[in-house]
Design goal:
mainly alpha; about 0% strand; globular
Length: about 400
Amino acid sequence: MPTRHAPALLAFALCLITLAVNLQAPLYIAYADLSGRGAAATAVAFSGYVLGVLPVLLALGGLADRVGRRPLILAALVLSMLATLIMLLSPGLASLGVARLFLGLGTGLASATATAYMSELMAPDDSGQAATWVTASTSLGFGLGAALTSVFLLAGPTMTPGSFHLQLALAALALLLVWRLPDPRATQRNAMLRLPLYPTGSLAYGLAILLAWACVGLVIALLPGILRQHGLSAWSGFSTFCVISCGLLFQPLARRLASARATLLGLLILPCSYALLAWGADSGNLAGVLLGAVAASSACYGFIYLGGLAAVNALAGSEKTRASAGFFLLAYLGFSLPVIFTGLLSDRLGSRMALQVFGGVLLLGCAAVALALWRASRASSRRCGGSTGPLPQRSN
């Protein structure tokens, strides 16, 4: 197999792994109805994902060095298929929690090694593009799964939409393709326990992605129930697609900015876009929901995700795997814990109050992180006599 195709094949596999993560999102309301539960229980099942991610990011940082990069991607693909099979065979909130546990394990394995593996598969002159390829393929996958399920549900309500079968078929193809990929880095007998690393200056980027993915988690887990109150349930999958995958449209602009500037711009956009999205959801204004989701996606999966991941990898030196694990650890904490608390508030105080409280905390968090990042950027500029360079550019 020509080596020049290897990055594209890995990107295809990463897209299929993340596609499975939100494949069931438009059915969350149906699962809750089957189980007779509310928003809080749905959020807890949704957050089973983090129980899978955390062990990988906290305790298995050295696994890629011991077994190689390719086996982890293969394992992640298998876990994504198992999760989809569980939801096909036994739909419900309990099954959703187990499936999302498997999805968390798989995504954790892939996240911890994807950027390093992509860099190793690329030609030396192109290796700086690894973060761009990873963010693009995973952003597309995270959003595409929910949108595909919504498309299949347009034909009529079902617990076994065709998107589930499609994911299984494409993931099986990806397994065969990844099996043939080279694994350039020789295995090493390093310690298995390698804790996430936060190089100097990287923590602010991790907190920024925590806030960004908290907003995304709320849209995926709780927005479908709010939209149902206004007869807009059919649009929940498309709102998930908009809040994730539309960020791809803004990544070319993000690559032209310095990492700190891209992240700061994302932190400025995030609370404004959330306000529009929350107003649209509360008032039943579909245009407000979709426009707010697209604007939030520009921050979450455009400026903050790409800018933050590129900055962390630049700061990490030879410890890219551990530094990426630290970045994604904070991202996935944001993806789950705030969603659970907001779900509890929604059950007790109503969806409007829950959205308002989340918005207030998001605004304060963005302001604090932006201030810390701005100060650190100014200090770095004074030490170096200039600002950090632009994000890596895609080769033509």
